[in-house]
Amino acid sequence: MSYDERRKRIETWWREINQFDFTETKKDDEKIKWFVLHDMGERWSKFQCYMNKNLLEIVGSEIIDEECGYDDLSFHLVFKNRRT
To answer: What is the pLDDT of residues 17-71, one digit of tens each?
Structure first.
């Protein structure tokens, strides 16, 4: 499978699962913050955060924070908006 096809599949999966579309982000937003709430427990939320971090890196998103952030309620990723 080519890189472009893999990227397209991951972006489609992310849009369907996370209700997030890279093309709908505002152009003037420098970064995007995405949350994983603890509705299935802290360990599962942490796993989801790191899995999505790896997928975003595969499609070329620049992760601003190296680790998944944590605030007692959710994990979060901060990544660069590709539309800026």
So the answer is: 777 666 666 666 788 777 877 777 888 888 888 888 888 888 778 888 778 888 8
Provide the residue type at 55 as one letter.
L
Task: Decide if 61 contacts 82 (C-beta within 8 A).
Answer: yes
Q: 72: buried, middle or exposed (CB in 10 Å: 19+, 13-18, 0-12)? A: exposed
What is the residue-wise DSSP string for 9-78? HHHHHHHHHH---GGGS-TT--EEEEEEESTT-HHHHHHHHHHHHHHHHHTT--BSSSS-EE-SSEEEEE
pTM of this prediction? Answer: 0.66
| Eight-class DSSP state of 4 | H
Q: Using an 8 Å Cβ cutoff, are 51 and 34 in contact?
A: no
